[in-house]
Predict the 3D structure of the following.
Amino acid sequence: MPAIEVSGLRKAYGNLEAVRGVDFSIEEGEVFGLLGPNGAGKTTTVEILEGYRQRDAGEVRVLGSDPERPEPDFRERIGVVLQQSQMWANLTVRETHAIFAGYYHAPREVDEVITVVGLQEKADARVKTLSGGQKRRLDLGIALVGDPDLVFLDEPTTGFDPQARRAAWEMIRSLRSLGKTVLLTTHYLDEAEQLADRVAVLREGRIVRVGTPTELTSADLQTEIRYRQNGEEVLVQTDEPTRVLAELTSAAVARGEELEGLQVRRPSLEEVYLALTAEEAEEAEVET
Amino acid sequence: MSADAIRVSGRRAPRALFVHQLRSEQLVFWRSREAAFFIFAFPLLLYVLLSSVYTGRIYGVPAPEALLAGLIGYGCANTAFAGLAIQLVLRRENGILKRLRSTPLPSATYVGALLVSTLVVFALQTIALFLLGSVFYGTPFPSDLASLVAAIVIGAAVFAALGTATASVIRSAEGSSAVVNFILLPMAFLSGSFGSTRHLPAFLRAIADVLPLKYFIDLVNAVYLRGHGIWTRPEDLAVLGAWGVAGLVFTIFKFRWEPRER
């Protein structure tokens, strides 16, 4: 049974259609990334799944529940990291974890969770003394303390410096090894590439592509071959890089020339993403 | 599927959740030095200062006794109205309220524990006021304890309802303290928290006549200073009840759990 199933999901705020017919499903134990620019509908989608918002249309199943009418133990089984939240400034890290642990029927050991999120040296520090990255780890800790099956992470590393992001990625990877299902939203492409088993690219309330990061990079864009000839840059885009390259190089060898600055490269996920969102923008213009 | 079957499902008992949340609320309250000072200690300090300034009689009783009733009124509005409103706005805007809604803690348990926690603070404050009055100024303890306890619970409930209603209209955490004190301090002054209002111009007394605090102080006066039972004051109870219901209805329709969109 999938942990999350969504079909035909729609949500509007007044005239603004934030989500316009989204379908996806997430298997148990999978790390699934929702990737898209700001305003693409990521947070709206996640908050519908968490039970914060009511959908206008579509079917939603989260751990077998409709989040609008959840089973009694639904909230025992989910852990939520909101995009923005600040806990009680004057409590310590340990006290904050203990408060959240007290809400659950079978919580994890508080100190163990604090160690998992790497705050053991800050366990007795007041929350207001933590750095931004440490506060985010606290958010993750209190989301894990109830020992959830499913964890929602809404932009878990926004505003982090590179080092803090790497540390957060390690923690999110450790969730997979604990067997948790994770739904992650991000507008960082490398984050989705690094963490997610599968990625859905969201643009203006629609999913424009779903697949593994590798599928996304290999399926869409042609391989680029660049070189200079007579001082001018030449760019060849092709679906058959092996054949084209062989032709180019053998022709050059036959002429006794060097292909100056020869480069063969596959597009990065970032370029796929930019191409997808650009396509979508053009389609949107045609539609209107 | 198999993981679901093995998993022991269940929830914590409602009473255990309530006790846990009440303890958590007490920890959060006393840990914040600003809250503990401005909400709990400040009315005590004002009582001692004012009782040292006024030496004569107010409303025919020694000033420290009349001020005791006035400061219980101020303490009630300060704790249940101002303190609760500021705390709720802060928690809402910080996303704590939103975050708690995704936990198994039921909203009713959360609100109940918060209100009881507020009542605990106000009750401790009232006890401290009586002790200070007795030790420094020889004021008597209340004769009809049951009526006084009832008055305090009613007052706390009414001002808590007004506090949650006010939290519903305040938009930002930064301005909440200013807005709340802009309401609280004039109301306390006009309602006689800090001394007699007989010398006030008629229009200011007319304003006080529609505000709830005057009626709460009158109720405490009747119970504490004159030893009347609480049911001898139906008018005070009716006005307080009307304000309480108005605050509750407003809260039910307007209160939001989520921060303003940024």
